[in-house]
Amino acid sequence: MAARIEVEKLGPEEFRVRVIEGKSETLHVVTMKTSEYERISGKKVAPAELVHRAFEFLLARERKEQILQRFDLTIIGQYFTEFEQAMKRSLKAL
């Protein structure tokens, strides 16, 4: 069963992400500077969509319980060096 990812914008650079799998869920708060959003996405998708795609990326590599509860989006690249390239590649077709 695929996880359901819900992204809610809390502020201009802050998002709440809820990951739901069956009867369990996790909550996360993600920050992302506008400049980082623009650099990674090229403005091809909305900021909330980039956060959603980042969680799809993470969930393909680890369980939802392993994802930090609060983090800045750019930290993903410290754990998975291919993150930014994967995001840019996935957005290239848009």
Cα separation of the termini: 27 Å
Shape: globular
Structural class: alpha+beta
Mean pLDDT, as a whole number?
A: 95
Describe this structure in words.
- There is one protein chain.
- This protein has 94 residues and is an alpha+beta fold.
- It has one domain.
- It is 37% helix and 29% strand.
- The chain has helices at 34-41, 47-59, 76-79, 83-92; strands spanning 4-11, 14-21, 24-31, 70-72.
How is this structure best summarized?
The protein is about 35% helix and about 30% strand. By secondary structure, the chain is of the alpha+beta class.
What labels describe this entry?
94 residues; globular; 4 helices; alpha+beta; four-stranded mixed beta sheet
Element layout with pairings:
Elements: E1 4-11, E2 14-21, E3 24-31, H1 34-41, H2 47-59, E4 70-72, H3 76-79, H4 83-92
Parallel strand pairs: 3-4
Antiparallel strand pairs: 1-2, 2-3
